[in-house]
Amino acid sequence: MVTEIAKSTEDVVQLLPQTRRLRALHTIIRDRDADRQDFVGYAGQIIRQLVEAGMELFPFESVDVETPVGQTYRGLRVSPRVCGVSIARAGESMETELSTIAPGVRIGKILIQRDKQTKLPHLYYSALPVDIASRHVLLLDPMLATGGTALAAIEVLVDAGVPEEHIVFVNVLSAPEGIRAVQNRYPHVRMVTSSIENGLNENAYMQPGIGDFGDRYFGTDATPDDHPPV
């Protein structure tokens, strides 16, 4: 179940219900003193909610099954033409929850890094299912800040033949600036997030923010001068 936000973004950006439980999870992972075990565990709970909400936006098909008492249950199953694509490295933190919810799902990967000279995102690597043009794609990246990386990743998918309306972009945190950037260039890409932040500071860090999600999740050190997510 997802909740639509402002009218200007309705049908495009959807926000998880802002329950007390979700706020409690955010309180833990946003704490600068949270240890890695807590960060990974509680972030995983949020990611699972996000992935389930994203899957809800995909097509379902009717399927009948026979129950143990010999009755027919007229049910549903998500279309088998679904795959995930993670934006490395932070997006890889979301793969486990997707695989748990949809065992056997195919997962592609895109590596984009910001050029130190131009400050622009640069595609270094992509590995996608060969039939991705015919699939619905859950694009995974926990952080949407300026939108530069997101736009580059979506461009890779569109160039591979994926229609915009077949892409659902899933984030733990989203900045308004990034949301607008994606909407302006790819208006039919839908987005699911657990938090819309107040905005970006002069260094392009989200406020109130969470720090570098990938570094905190994978246990690598980062300094304040490291590049923020884009």
UniProtKB/TrEMBL annotation:
Its EC number is 2.4.2.9. Residues 17-220 form the Phosphoribosyltransferase domain. Pathway: Pyrimidine metabolism; UMP biosynthesis via salvage pathway; UMP from uracil: step 1/1. GO terms for molecular function: GTP binding; uracil phosphoribosyltransferase activity. It comes from the Bacteria. Pfam families: UPRTase. CDD domains: PRTases_typeI (cd06223). Keywords: Allosteric enzyme, Glycosyltransferase, GTP-binding, Nucleotide-binding, Transferase. Its cofactor is Mg(2+). Signal peptide: none annotated. Belongs to the UPRTase family. This is uracil phosphoribosyltransferase. It comes from Glycomyces buryatensis.
